[in-house]
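Quick one, T. Sequence first:
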Amino acid sequence: MRILLVDDHDESRELTEAALNSAGFIDVATAASAWDALNILDIWRADRGPTVDLILLDIVMPKMNGIETCARVRKDERYAKLPIIMLTALHDVESLSDAFIAGATDYIAKPFTLVELVARVQTAEATVAGRWERNPRASSGGQR
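Structure tokens:
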């Protein structure tokens, strides 16, 4: 499973990536901004297949926040059903509601535990695996 981790804070991004790696998720791409993430996803190249299987997306980022990023990703047909888990220090209902309206499938409140992160990623992985079993061409391949 290829994971895209998007967080503008270096330390948070590095700690989350290390946690994912320690749980066996070794195919992790990282982005420090929404624009970097959209480039990794090849959002402007619809002629290519999906580049990731799951996105972990921080909500609070400069220039383009995670909610707007999520909405842009969802407009790309290749990523219409991709699991997007929002990472957020925000606890207000409006932000969470906006994230789900934009297309988020789940969220994790910061700070989070390794157990919670791994459980949510494993749930997303099972969802993706089930979709691949029904449509093998939907896979972007890659390791766990």
